[in-house]
Amino acid sequence: MKFKSAIKPYRAAAGGWGSLEATTRFVIDSKHALKNLRNLMRMNKARGFDCPGCAWGDDNKSTFSFCENGAKAVTWEATRRFIDRQFFAQHSVSKLYAQSDYFLEYQGRLTEPLRYNARTDHYEPISWDDALALIAQHIHGMDNPNQLELYTSGRASNEASYIYQLFGRMVGTNNFPDCSNMCHEASGSGLKRSIGVGKGTIQLDDFDKANAIFVFGQNPGTNHPRMLHSLRHAAENGAQIVTFNTLRERGLERFADPQKPLEVITPLAGSISTHYYQPNLGGDMAAVRGMAKALLETHRECLARGDKGIFDEWFIAEHTHGIDDWFAEIDKTAWEHITRQSGLSEQQLRDAAAIWQQAERVICTWAMGITQHKHSLNTVREIVNLQLLGGHLGKPGAGLCPVRGHSNVQGNRTMGIDEKPSAALLDSLSAHFGFKAPREKGHNTVEALAAMLRDEVKVLIALGGNLAAAAPDSPRTEEALRRCGLTVHISTKLNRSHLVPGRDGLILPTLGRTEADIQATGRQFITVEDSFSMVHASEGIGQPIADTQRSETAIVAGIADAVLGKDKLNWQAFADDYNLIRDRIAATIPGFQNFNQQCEKPGGFYLGNAAAQLRFSTPSGKAEFSAAALPASLFGDLDAPFVLQTLRSHDQYNTTIYGLDDRYRGVYGQREVLFIHPDDLAGLGLQEGDLVDIETVWNDGITRKVSGFKIVSYNIPRGNLAAYYPETNPLVPLASVGDGTGTPTSKSVPVKISRSALKTNNRIA
Ligand SMILES: Nc1nc2c(c(=O)[nH]1)N[C@H]1C(S)=C(S)[C@@H](COP(=O)(O)OP(=O)(O)OC[C@H]3O[C@@H](n4cnc5c(=O)[nH]c(N)nc54)[C@H](O)[C@@H]3O)O[C@H]1N2
Ligand SMILES: Nc1nc2c(c(=O)[nH]1)N[C@H]1C(S)=C(S)[C@@H](COP(=O)(O)OP(=O)(O)OC[C@H]3O[C@@H](n4cnc5c(=O)[nH]c(N)nc54)[C@H](O)[C@@H]3O)O[C@H]1N2
Ligand SMILES: [Mo]
């Protein structure tokens, strides 16, 4: 593979021709064009499979509901390229380790179970029976159940994740580290504390009814392209779209709908954001605090004049608790503190507040720009505070919308993939299945890695994902994985995690979402939950590439059967007929009554959300205002000239690299780039295109550095930098996590930069 690298600004709108062209090119390149196109046609329709791309909802209105990046996700999975025993006989693990993430996945689908042979440094074929027996042998050899870690990536279905958590708890552990720990943990935990449920409160059609939508720290043009349709409709209906994003993101500026031919043909793109603010990294809590301060001032002025205030007094009195403490905290927060931390002026924040004030119905959405900081939990809660002031909860066109990442990450949590499960869940499982579910809190992702580094982990099973590349502090993460007794990866494609096996290691090849899943009782479907708490069925249609692949559900059932036997539960029956799993879910998880019948509803069914009905399961029984202080500074005593965020390009799905372009940001054929403000560039005596090294400023004596990143000047606030994940994961210290969330602070890494000794950075060729 050869890639031509270039930096040239993208001037067209997001979506539109550029997107159609890229999709077609991608579909054709995947060497299976016809099948791919057929797959696309079925995506997100009433029948067919759920798009594995993201967790945005489906309106079921458009006939051909797809987006460029969903198309990439499908074609990447549905490729006819594959790797088998010859490939692994040819390539040692150390040789493969030297390859890029792009190269690894590009090789194609994994087809048969493999076991790592440390003597030869090669993976070798192993039968399914032997692989399952090996897992059982390792688990039986543990001294205590907490030597087992069960990682989950958010693509796993409800059915697979339900029996996975049941298996883990029957073994006796709550060690369920998952991708959510690195992702929306702050949303789940923050919302839970504020409104009693850790999920968004709105439904998809609320976007059509909103007067103002505030989009915080999110790049929907790349990561949730179908959200652009909703924003676009809302804008057409006259809604104000107020964006807070450190970078100027093309997808948030203009959008041409590829599903509206006229817009594609003419360059007439609709604009998305009516207002665009660029706060400093980590500056959003200060920004929202500033808006609240401005609003409170107006409110008091009204009252002083004898007028009605501007807040929803009835809602506040009836449904909330703790407002006085928050007001006291706002009064204590100085404007100087707010503007310094947010990087926005008092006037900008007063303007944003005025838009909020004028709107009768407000939605706030957010993603990783909010959740991957040290003070993310309090930032999420500050956004909730703002919404509570206006009673923007539990009415049409208003509410809270954390936009989830992986297509079923929300469903995984609903199914009990949670290292800090509620007593209600444990009681329900214990009563129904007749066992004592463990009560001790388990490990989140960073805690699991720390336990591995302490040699406390005998077995790691990973239901999907790519922990080695997704987790922070790559050298330490890789070392952690190597210290496990046995690592088991249930995967579709080869990735970095497979190349840092434990002392013993297995790769188990699995079917993907798009493929037909035939079991003893016939064709199976699975279910997923989107960001709007809609649960729906998903049924793959593609022919699996090898009959030695197994479904995730069958693999998990097989592991459970090998480890726990048939005495308590007939795990094999679950694998034969997924309806039986859904019956158990119906019996133990709230909201899933008549689950199997409910699945027949086209478009799925709504799980409901107590907070949206103004029922709050919080200590006070009301929505809780949070009165957290604004952090005095974001990095304590650390004196770093720059703050770096690690983010996604347009051609990747997390650690899966589809290609080397980031079209909307004008980057082509390369990934090792560093976005910087032109004045900072000049201040350092550097020029566009120079190569630099980036080094973390931290306090544990460890050098964390990546080298040879090409400088690209960009519309970003001074002192702020951006570069792609996972290339920059080595820079995020394992110990640098969010307060109360444990989430790696991937969007605020204190760094310094220097001219690189490297002459070229074109390492992927
Ligand atoms: N095609 C594609 N789709 C995906 C994914 C993918 O990799 N590729 N990943 C999926 C997953 S798991 C997730 S979690 C989501 C991620 O979706 P996003 O959250 O959109 O992902 P990021 O690329 O991390 O982008 C973070 C955005 O927030 C901005 N930002 C960063 N820090 C701050 C800040 O402090 N304040 C503000 N206001 N803005 C900030 C960045 O400039 C960027 O626009 O997407 C999901 N969908
Ligand atoms: N620095 C930095 N680090 C981050 C982030 C960041 O913004 N910056 N974002 C974080 C976020 S938001 C997330 S969600 C995590 C993502 O962390 P993960 O979910 O662990 O990572 P993915 O890259 O999504 O996993 C890709 C792998 O999943 C496997 N796979 C794909 N489809 C399937 C399937 O259908 N079944 C199974 N069993 N396996 C499958 C393939 O083998 C593929 O290699 O990364 C986090 N890490
Ligand atoms: Mo995520």
UniProtKB/TrEMBL annotation:
<dbReference type="Pfam" id="PF00384">
    <property type="entry name" value="Molybdopterin"/>
</dbReference>
<dbReference type="InterPro" id="IPR050123">
    <property type="entry name" value="Prok_molybdopt-oxidoreductase"/>
</dbReference>
<keyword id="KW-0500">Molybdenum</keyword>
<dbReference type="InterPro" id="IPR009010">
    <property type="entry name" value="Asp_de-COase-like_dom_sf"/>
</dbReference>
<keyword id="KW-0560">Oxidoreductase</keyword>
<dbReference type="GO" id="GO:0045333">
    <property type="term" value="P:cellular respiration"/>
</dbReference>
<keyword id="KW-0479">Metal-binding</keyword>
<dbReference type="GO" id="GO:0051539">
    <property type="term" value="F:4 iron, 4 sulfur cluster binding"/>
</dbReference>
<dbReference type="InterPro" id="IPR006657">
    <property type="entry name" value="MoPterin_dinucl-bd_dom"/>
</dbReference>
<dbReference type="GO" id="GO:0043546">
    <property type="term" value="F:molybdopterin cofactor binding"/>
</dbReference>
<dbReference type="InterPro" id="IPR010046">
    <property type="entry name" value="Mopterin_OxRdtse_a_bac"/>
</dbReference>
<dbReference type="GO" id="GO:0030151">
    <property type="term" value="F:molybdenum ion binding"/>
</dbReference>
<dbReference type="Pfam" id="PF01568">
    <property type="entry name" value="Molydop_binding"/>
</dbReference>
<keyword id="KW-0411">Iron-sulfur</keyword>
<dbReference type="InterPro" id="IPR006656">
    <property type="entry name" value="Mopterin_OxRdtase"/>
</dbReference>
<keyword id="KW-0004">4Fe-4S</keyword>
<dbReference type="GO" id="GO:0008863">
    <property type="term" value="F:formate dehydrogenase (NAD+) activity"/>
</dbReference>
<dbReference type="GO" id="GO:1990204">
    <property type="term" value="C:oxidoreductase complex"/>
</dbReference>
<comment type="similarity">
    <text>Belongs to the prokaryotic molybdopterin-containing oxidoreductase family.</text>
</comment>
<feature type="domain" description="Molybdopterin oxidoreductase">
    <location>
        <begin position="109"/>
        <end position="490"/>
    </location>
</feature>
<keyword id="KW-0408">Iron</keyword>
<dbReference type="InterPro" id="IPR037951">
    <property type="entry name" value="MopB_CT_YdeP"/>
</dbReference>
<feature type="domain" description="Molybdopterin dinucleotide-binding">
    <location>
        <begin position="642"/>
        <end position="749"/>
    </location>
</feature>
<dbReference type="InterPro" id="IPR041953">
    <property type="entry name" value="YdeP_MopB"/>
</dbReference>
<dbReference type="GO" id="GO:0016020">
    <property type="term" value="C:membrane"/>
</dbReference>
<protein>
    <submittedName>
        <fullName>FdhF/YdeP family oxidoreductase</fullName>
    </submittedName>
</protein>
